[in-house]
Amino acid sequence: MDGHERDEDNLLLSEVFALLAQNDDLPEQAQYVVLAAFEDEAAIAEALGGQATPAKPSAREITPVEEPVGAFLKSISVCGFRGIGSRVDLELHPAVGLTVVAGRNGSGKSSFSEALEFAITGNTYRWSGKKSLTTWTEHWRNLHNGVPCEVVVELAEEDVGITKVGVT
Fold it and tell me: What number of helices (H) and strands (E) belong to the chain?
């Protein structure tokens, strides 16, 4: 288990523990079953059978996890990638909510989406399962424009500012 998974487990346990502490109507035996679920199947079976009482974790055992900084997509600049030849900038409104990118067929919506995925992960779902690497390297570049391929993504991060991520 990596550190990120441990943080998520701690956050979940902390939330469940807080909810159990707030709920006076939930029988103690039911609370034990819920807590046993964080251990293993044997602990659940024991708690359901009334054979064991899992120890409630103390506040010291639960390490609070800081909420991640909010990051919002500000822009994607692409040139020479898939259906996009010369540099095109897609400016977005960086805020909470749903952003819709609409346009006619062939206008580059999927190219922008895949460019974003490629810049952030270094791969794309479309090509991740393909057997031939040459298929990927032959088709991710725009063949009709001699410009070098580049993708730059700008993220607006709360209390941090603008962060740029890209690939050339």
Answer: 6, 4
Beta strand segments in the chain, E = 71-79, 88-91, 150-157, 161-167
Give the Cα separation of 123 and 116 in Å (integer). 10
25 phi, psi to nearest 5 deg: -80, -20
User: Tell me, what's the pLDDT at 156?
Assistant: 92
CA atoms within 13 Å, Cβ hemisphere of 123: 7
Nearest to 62 by CA among 97, 11, 109, 105: 11
Report the alpha-carbon distance of residue 112 to residue 62 in Å, rounded: 42
Could you report the per-residue pLDDT of 61-75, keeping only the tens digit for each? 556 666 667 889 999
| Whole-number Å distance between alpha carbons of 26 and 34 | 11
Q: Look at residue 20 and give its three-state secondary structure.
A: helix
Q: How far apart are CA 67 and CA 121, in angstroms?
A: 22
Structure tokens at 43: 């602990």
The predicted-structure confidence for 5-30, as pLDDT tens digits, reads as follows 556 666 777 777 777 777 778 777 77
* Tokens linked to 81: 């990638």
Q: With 90 as the cut, is the pLDDT of residue 77 above it?
A: yes
Tokens describing residue 14: 């902390």
